Amino acid sequence: MFAANATSCPSGAHVGNKSDEEFYDVPVGADSMFRVLKRYQNLKSIGSGAQGFVCSAYDVILKQNVAIKKLSKPFQNATHAKRAYREFCIMNLVNHKNIISLLNAFTPQKTVDEFIDVYLVMELMDANLCQVIQMELDHERISYLLYQMLCGIKHLHSAGIIHRDLKPSNIVVKSDCTLKILDFGLARTAGTNFSMTPYVVTRYYRSPEIILAMGYSDNADIWSVGCIFGEMLRGTVVFQGADHIDQWNKIIEQLGTPSTEFMNRLLPTVRNYVANRPRYPGYEIERLFPDILFPADSRQGQLTAASARDLLSKMLVIDPQLRITVEEALNHPYIRVWYDDSEVNAPAPNVYDHSVDEQEHTIEEWKQLIFEEVTRYEQQMMVATLEQLNQQRDLTDEQRN
């Protein structure tokens, strides 16, 4: 699969056949060990979650700080394996300034029989949105963060990809307010014949159509953005349900019981349950998000509480057919102040081929598929790394002369 003769390469950049000398072990946290290429130094744990452990590191070839994510037990069951495959393929496919970039991917194992670990190397950011939400944000920052979320989402949707798991912990920022979306293990292709499962997205940011098993369209992501928007204003989760059923209750208590026309589109069993719930009139958006929650007007009166509230009211709409679209949101006065066509309409990626992950595979079959994808990527990176090293060598020679 690789060239028969391994090329000597400094700092553990993987080129040619793998050898144990290219990797080294680093303990991370109390019970995790990273086995990484020697090009990555000074590893420090920066977080962990259901999808894996993440470390910061310094890449001696790119000469920059990076984040390294070790996928957590990607082959313990078919669901984890499918998520690992999907996340890697989507990260390798998309290319937009508001979506986290895949800088490298590798496995220290040489054969599919040994294959147990996948490492994804990404840009290193300063914080996730959970930390930012606790700060006092002015209209410029709130509006600009939302604009970037919408640009990233639009890029995903242009490839037929619905993120499905947008939440503050899956959105990362830098101190200059630049924002990127990450974690695509639960992303799904639009228009496929698929019924949402209740655990697909984090409960608090889950759209009504997902909760009620109606299927979904790409503006399911808009509901999630609306929940995040509201949380930036309140400083607390907007719809904090204790379980799947209570989540629906929290939504209708604030927004009101939806129309009969909406109810008629539900599955009979779901419709019976929803119809038998107490009816709620809901509250006006001004009461849910009063002026006191908003910062002072800014941008010469372009960014105001009234404009922000108007956008929020169009995002937090129970009926997805009446909810604002990504394109409409990007053209809303509260967002349009940042409009840059090169960001909004960046070249679309290739449409994601969902034919593999729509099929049922055994764990061993998923393992084979992921191993093939990762080793194919390693081969591509082998060429790119050699080019980088040669450029650095030429530059050093020029400086010496």
Structural commentary:
The protein has 401 residues and is an alpha+beta fold. The longest helix has 38 residues, at 363-400. The chain has helices at residues 78-93, 129-133, 139-158, 208-211, 220-234, 244-255, 260-263, 268-275, 285-288, 305-315, 326-330, 333-336, 341-344, 363-400; strands at residues 23-28, 32-37, 40-49, 52-59, 64-71, 102-106, 119-123, 127-128, 161-162, 171-173, 179-181, 188-189. Helix 1 runs parallel beside helix 14 (363-400). The protein has two domains: 1-124, 2-Layer Sandwich (Phosphorylase Kinase, domain 1), CATH 3.30.200; 127-344, Transferase(Phosphotransferase), domain 1.
Query: Rg to the nearest angstrom?
Result: 23 Å
Number of helices: 14
Instruction: Report mean pLDDT, rounded to a whole number.
Output: 86
Quickly give the CATH architecture of the largest domain. Orthogonal Bundle
Please describe the biggest sheet, giving its number of strands, its sense, and whether it closes into a barrel.
Answer: 5 strands, antiparallel
The CATH superfamily of the largest domain is Transferase(Phosphotransferase) domain 1
| Distance from first to last alpha carbon | 40 Å
Shape type: globular
Count of strand segments: 12
